[in-house]
């Protein structure tokens, strides 16, 4: 099984996004088969009217995040909140990974230069999907009560450790 490339190879937004996929005419697309996303759950916790604090985790710079990184951060934050304040929060993922990541896989290792000559301007095959975030765009949102703000900040700190880039927590 092939390994994932490190996040540093994809986190920068250097070119245009590729998200063109049509279910009606898949052979007419640049992307023939759309890779699945690891991110399937977007709303967690209990959404009620009694919450008086809203916290968001926002980016400090433009970044591209793979769906598996967002899913890992979501699981980490939700696990902490479920243990610290069960039923006392509402957690929401605010972005959806649309951008398709392409990769030109080449042979690596000793003697690989004789096996693979490579291709100039290689388009690559789709390997995953990512979300593109602008500077200051919120990624996660937590609704809770004022007494649980410390737990929500800790959940965001744990989630930010799973993501590449710099993040800030805003309380409203």
Summarize the model shown:
This protein has 172 residues and is of the alpha+beta class.
Broad structural category: alpha+beta
Question: What is the first-to-last residue Cα distance?
Answer: 45 Å
Give the C-alpha Rg: 19 Å
Question: How is the CATH topology named?
Answer: Aldehyde Oxidoreductase, domain 3
Structural shape:
elongated
- What top-tier CATH class fits best? Alpha Beta
- Count of distinct strands: 8
SSE order: EEEHEEHEEHE
- How many distinct helices? 3
Uncertain runs are none
Largest sheet: 5 strands, antiparallel
Any descriptors?
20% helix, Aldehyde Oxidoreductase, domain 3, 172 residues, 3 helices, elongated, alpha+beta, 26% strand
Notes on the protein architecture:
The structure is a single chain. This protein is of the alpha+beta class. It is built from 3 helices and 8 strands; from the N terminus they run E-E-E-H-E-E-H-E-E-H-E. Helix 1 (67-84) runs antiparallel to helix 3 (149-160). The model has no long low-confidence stretch (mean pLDDT 87).
